[in-house]
Specification:
6 helices; Aminopeptidase; Ribosomal_N-acetyltransferase; Acyl_CoA_acyltransferase; 8-stranded mixed β-sheet; alpha+beta; GNAT_dom
């Protein structure tokens, strides 16, 4: 499929391009982003170039992984993060969302807006230009409190603790799983999480 640009009055989501290479290298050196994502280490200019020139176009063309750069609408030339809608299965009506945001963009509601925009597109009927999905899920390490807060704010429902489900930088950790359906009212949630996970949820972490 062809890349789709999305946005609202504050946030613009568009495909990462060559002008974003320097920002990608800068942001993906952040230890917090490295800790909770699968970005290569080191994330150098050669990889960033391959990412925007080859990998992103291939992922869009497959229709299985849709990649957007997160930007402020008033500063569209400055990449602040990336949001992916991946494992897209239009036959089953399902996908998963993942995202990360640079330090300069955090604490401003940008990630919350970006996820909401992508969910709108995911659930919009195909006849209206969307994907017509039924369910979008989210998975993140229990330590990734920032990503969890965004997921709560956009209305994802907590579905459970996945024991030992993730391996991040050679370390196995438990994961949280949440999801939202097209039929759900997307209002902020306050998850009730099993006691065994609570001791790690207060640790800082970047957006997933």
């Amino acid at each position: 499929m062809e890349p789709v640009t999305l946005g609202d009055d504050e946030v613009l989501l568009s495909r990462p391009v060559e002008d974003d290479i320097a920002a990608l290298v800068e942001h993906c050196a952040d230890p917090e982003i490295v800790a909770f994502t699968t970005v290569p280490v080191p994330y150098d200019r050669d990889y960033a170039t391959r990412y925007v020139q080859e990998l992103v176009p291939q992922r869009w063309a497959s229709g299985k992984k849709l990649v957007w750069g997160i930007r402020r609408r008033q500063l569209p030339g400055r990449l602040l993060g990336v949001i992916n809608l991946f494992d897209v299965d239009t036959g089953r009506g399902t996908a998963e969302v993942g995202y990360w945001l640079a330090k300069e963009g955090r604490g401003k509601g940008i990630a919350t807006r970006a996820v909401s925009i992508v969910l709108d597109y995911a659930f919009l009927a195909e006849s209206a230009g969307g994907l017509g999905l039924f369910r979008v899920q989210w998975t993140a390490a229990v330590e990734n409190a920032a990503s969890r807060r965004v997921a709560e704010h956009v209305g994802l429902r907590y579905e459970g603790l996945l024991r030992g489900a993730l391996v991040l930088r050679g370390r196995r950790t438990d994961a949280l799983r949440a999801a939202v359906l097209a039929s759900d009212e997307r209002v902020p949630q306050e998850w009730v999480i099993a006691d065994e996970a609570l001791h790690t949820l207060s640790l800082p972490g970047p957006y997933n």
